[in-house]
Design goal:
With 152 residues, this protein is mostly helical. It has five helices and no strands. It binds heme C (HEC) (2 copies).
Length: 152
């Protein structure tokens, strides 16, 4: 009983944090001489190649080496990234339903694990690498990469 209550409390707290908090902080990211948001597109592209891609490749491959056997710019930006000048979100990524804190994806047995990975690992790792905040009121969230329907 006590253990169940603690587990319920922990997941309620996790949900509350997911719903409300902006996490992380804004800094000059490692390997850069200015904040990410102060870079022009060319500087962002270079920073993505030198810093973001290696970290995120390792992150995705640690989660699922088969599905993410190859991770490159197109994994996040899509096959037409260059034509779209790397604009995000990427229309070729799965469209998410944000209602009920992404309930549809969290409750789907086929998507539960990857949704959890996105929330707990992808968001914070990318944000840390960019030196920006994350979470629903932060700089990086699910909509930084995925299209949403309905809009968040
Ligand atoms: C793990 C996912 C991921 C990978 C891999 C990735 N990017 Fe990005 N990239 C993003 C996100 C998310 C943004 C938007 C960040 C923001 O909100 O400003 C972005 C932004 C950019 C921008 C700025 C776009 C703009 O509108 O100003 C450029 C340019 C860019 N990426 C180039 C690249 C290149 C080149 C590569 C490969 C070397 C790459 N990215 C790899 C996720 C990724
Ligand atoms: C940095 C970019 C990025 C961010 C931020 C991000 N995702 Fe993802 N997401 C991806 C990529 C890349 C895939 C893999 C798509 C593929 O398999 O080609 C993916 C896949 C998924 C999938 C699997 C969908 C399916 O049909 O299999 C779900 C669910 C998902 N993301 C949910 C989320 C949620 C929820 C958040 C916010 C907590 C989030 N994502 C944040 C890039 C991102």
């Amino acid at each position: 009983m006590a253990r169940l209550r603690i587990a319920l409390l922990a997941s309620a707290l996790a949900l509350a944090a997911f719903a409300a908090c902006r996490m992380g902080r804004t800094t000059i990211p490692e390997g850069a001489d200015r904040p990410f948001d102060a870079m022009d597109r060319g500087q962002k592209a270079a920073f993505m190649a030198e810093r973001v891609l290696p970290v995120m490749r390792e992150t995705f491959q640690a989660f699922d080496p088969q599905r993410f056997a190859s991770v490159d710019c197109a994994t996040c930006h899509g096959p037409n990234a260059e034509a779209r000048v790397y604009a995000m979100p990427n229309p070729d990524l799965p469209t998410l339903d944000p209602r009920g804190l992404y309930r549809k994806h969290r409750k789907d047995p086929a998507q539960h694990a990857i949704a959890d990975f996105m929330w707990r690992t992808v968001q914070p790792t990318l944000a840390r690498t960019l030196g920006v905040t994350y979470g629903p009121n932060g700089r990086i969230d699910c909509a930084s990469c995925h299209p949403h329907d309905p809009p968040p």
